[in-house]
TrEMBL record:
Domain Cupin type-2: 46-114
InterPro entries in UniProt: Cupin_2, RmlC-like_jellyroll, RmlC_Cupin_sf
Entry protein name: Cupin domain-containing protein
Source organism phylogeny: Bacteria, Pseudomonadati, Pseudomonadota, Alphaproteobacteria, Acetobacterales
Top-level taxonomic group: Bacteria
Pfam (any one): Cupin_2
Species: Rhodovarius crocodyli
Length: 163
């Protein structure tokens, strides 16, 4: 079997506005399930609005790579370690490592994510609102009421005391 060649143009893939507390948006660029890639993965970018954050979470069955493209912020890892998130920084999260990302107050934080195996793209599509080129940023909107169910059906495990 020949592995396919896939080229995604700028602005290609699907984009989704994200609810609070991250706000901002996600661009889902590639997912091996969409083209028959041999190694299961999904990758894209996420822009977290200034002063906003990605909630503390854990992926029990997935490994994740985060590469900071623009902006700055802080990563909280395993509930105790803080590390700066600045352009060029790269993080590898093995299965079961909790993490939270906070954008600095002075501007958005944009990073590339790579999830192995995939599934994060499904989560983003289910909690977000589709974003189209030229859209204006929407007012902050809440997460779906069934977000915990969506998390459990995709790539997340619940954290005690976190909702």
């Amino acid at each position: 079997m020949t592995t396919p060649l896939v080229i995604v143009p700028p602005e290609g893939g699907q984009s989704f506005w994200q609810p609070v507390p991250a706000n901002g948006f996600v661009r889902c660029i590639l997912a091996s399930k969409d083209f028959g890639g041999e190694t299961p993965f999904a990758m894209g970018t996420q822009t977290v609005a200034a002063g906003c954050f990605v909630r503390e979470h854990v992926h029990p069955d997935n490994e994740e790579i985060i590469f900071v493209l623009e902006g700055s912020g802080q990563a909280l890892i395993n509930g105790t370690e803080t590390h700066p998130m600045e352009k060029g920084a790269c993080f590898f999260f093995g299965r079961g490592q909790t993490h939270r990302f906070q954008a600095a107050e002075d501007g958005p934080l944009t990073f590339m994510w790579l999830m192995m195996p995939g599934g994060l793209e499904t989560f983003f599509s289910r909690i977000g609102r589709e974003k189209f080129p030229g859209d204006t940023t929407p007012s902050p909107f809440p997460r779906p009421e069934d977000v915990l169910k969506i998390e459990a059906e995709t790539v997340f495990a619940s954290l005690p005391g976190k909702a």
